[in-house]
Specification:
This is CBM39 domain-containing protein. Residues 35-139, 151-256 form the CBM39 domain. GO terms for molecular function: carbohydrate binding. The protein has 382 residues and is of the alpha+beta class. 25% of the residues lie in helices and 35% in strands. It contains eight helices and 21 strands. It has helices at residues 5-23, 30-35, 147-152, 265-294, 309-312, 316-325, 354-363, 373-381, and strands at 40-46, 50-55, 62-71, 80-89, 96-101, 111-120, 123-126, 130-133, 138-139, 156-160, 166-171, 178-187, 196-205, 212-217, 227-236, 239-242, 246-249, 301-305, 337-343, 346-351, 371-372. β3 and β4 form a beta hairpin. It is flat, with a radius of gyration of 30 Å.
Length: 382
C-alpha cells in the first residue's frame, strides 16, 4: 500500500495538468482579446432614436456598428429583423465615439443583435455578435435635443469663388446667437496619406446678412482638387456646440461662376421689397374677407397643449420658436410670433395676424400639436 501512494498522487497531478491543458487548447483569438477591452453602450430613445457609443481610446481610429432590430414571432424561432443600422465614425464627441440615429424606432420587447468594429493600425477587428432584449427606454429630460441632433438641424453651405475667396453660411435661426467655422484646405501628396493643410480659416460671426450667418474670406485661394476639412460651431444659451468634422473634395460644382459681372444682390433686394409689399396687401385683403365671414370673433391666438407646462416651460417664447423651427414649412412663421405665455396645460401664443395663425394651423396639420385658441375657448364655454 505504501508503494502505491506516489502512483496515485502522480495520476491526480497528470489529470489536473491535462485539465489545464484542455482549457488552453483553444485560446481566444488575438482579435477577440483585443476587442474585449472596449465597453460598448446601447441606448434606445423615446419616441424614436438609438445611440451607441464607446469611450475614446488611442487604439481606435474608427468605430463602427452593425446592428439589427427585430420583433419576436410565435411562428418563427428567430426574430424578424426588419430594422438595421450600419454606420462608421472617425471623430469623437465629448470623449466618445458616438453613433446616433434619431429616426430608428425601438420598442420595449424588441431584440437587438449587434457587433461593433474597430480600426487600428490599418486592421479592422469585429466583435462577436451580441443580443439584448429591450426593456427600458431613455426619455429626454431637456427641452433641447441632445448634442448631435441639435447640430444636425443646421444646413451649412460652402462655396468657392474665382479667382479667390470662399463663403460659408447657414440660415438665420433663433437657436443661433453666434455662428463660427474652423476650416482647413489642403492638397494631396503622393508621399503622405493626409493632405498638406496649408490654408485655414477660423472666424465667428454674431450678425446676419440677408437672413444668413455669413462668413466670407475674399483672399482665400481654393483650387479644383483641393480637400476642405471643416466643422462649424453654434452658440446658444451660453453653450458652444461643435459639429463633427466634415470633408469635401473641391470640384467645379463648388465654384460660383456668374455669367456676367453684375451683382445680383441688389436686384434680389429690390424684388424682395416688392414682394413684401404685395404680400402685405394680400394679407390685408384676406383679413378683411375673414372678418366679413366670421366677424371680429376670430383672434390671432394659438394654443400648444402640454400637460404640466407651468413646471416644464421656463421660456414660453423660446418654446414656441423651437416648436415651429422643427417643421421646415413653419420656420418663416417664427418672425410673426408676437407674444407667448404659459398656461396650466399648455402654451399660448399670439401671431401677428389671423392669416399667420391660419398658416400655422394648415401647414402644421398632423405635424405639430397646435390648436386654434378660439376653438378651445368655445369648448370651455360649452
Amino acid at each position: 500500500m505504501m508503494n502505491k501512494r506516489p502512483t496515485i498522487v502522480a495520476f491526480i497531478m497528470c489529470v489536473l495538468a491535462a485539465a489545464v491543458m484542455a482549457q488552453d487548447e483553444h485560446p481566444l483569438p488575438d482579435y477577440l482579446v483585443f476587442m474585449k477591452q472596449f465597453m460598448v453602450h446601447v441606448q434606445a430613445r423615446e419616441p424614436s432614436g438609438i445611440m451607441i457609443w464607446t469611450r475614446d481610446s488611442p487604439l481606435i481610429e474608427m468605430f463602427g456598428i452593425e446592428l439589427h432590430i427585430g420583433k419576436h414571432s410565435h411562428s418563427q424561432k428567430e426574430p424578424i429583423w426588419d430594422r438595421q443600422l450600419m454606420v462608421n465614425v472617425t471623430s469623437t464627441v465629448d470623449g466618445k465615439f458616438l453613433i446616433h440615429d434619431r429616426d430608428m424606432i425601438v420598442e420595449v420587447g424588441d431584440t437587438i443583435r449587434y457587433r461593433f468594429l474597430v480600426l487600428h493600425k490599418r486592421t479592422v477587428s469585429h466583435s462577436n455578435y451580441r443580443r439584448m432584449l429591450v426593456t427600458v427606454m431613455a426619455q429626454d429630460e431637456h427641452p433641447l435635443p441632445d448634442y448631435l441632433v441639435f447640430m444636425k438641424q443646421f444646413m451649412v453651405h460652402v462655396q468657392a469663388r474665382e479667382p479667390s475667396g470662399i463663403m460659408i453660411w447657414t440660415r438665420d435661426s433663433p437657436l443661433i446667437e453666434m455662428f463660427g467655422i474652423e476650416l482647413h484646405i489642403g492638397k494631396h501628396s503622393h508621399s503622405q496619406k493626409e493632405p498638406i493643410w496649408d490654408r485655414q480659416l477660423m472666424v465667428n460671426v454674431t450678425s446676419t446678412v440677408d437672413g444668413k450667418f455669413l462668413i466670407h474670406d475674399r483672399d482665400m485661394i481654393v483650387e479644383v482638387g483641393d480637400t476642405i476639412r471643416y466643422r462649424f460651431l453654434v452658440l446658444h444659451k451660453r453653450t458652444v456646440s461643435h459639429s463633427n468634422y466634415r470633408r469635401m473634395l473641391v470640384t467645379d460644382h463648388l465654384f460660383n461662376r456668374p455669367r456676367n459681372t453684375k451683382c445680383l444682390s441688389e436686384c434680389l433686394a429690390r424684388d424682395q421689397a416688392g414682394y413684401r409689399q404685395e404680400e402685405a396687401r394680400m394679407k390685408e385683403i384676406l383679413e378683411h374677407k375673414i372678418e366679413q365671414c366670421v366677424g371680429s370673433q376670430s383672434s390671432e391666438y394659438l394654443f400648444f397643449p402640454l400637460e404640466g407646462a407651468i413646471t416644464l416651460v421656463s421660456d414660453p417664447m423660446h418654446f414656441i420658436k423651437y416648436r415651429l423651427w422643427q417643421i421646415e414649412d413653419l420656420r418663416p412663421a417664427i418672425d410673426n410670433v408676437l407674444t407667448a405665455y404659459v398656461a396650466q396645460n399648455g402654451v399660448g401664443v399670439k401671431m401677428r395676424t389671423v392669416i399667420d395663425k391660419l398658416k400655422v394651423l394648415e401647414l402644421g396639420r398632423r405635424k405639430i400639436n397646435v390648436i386654434d385658441y378660439d376653438d378651445r375657448l368655445t369648448e370651455s364655454l360649452n
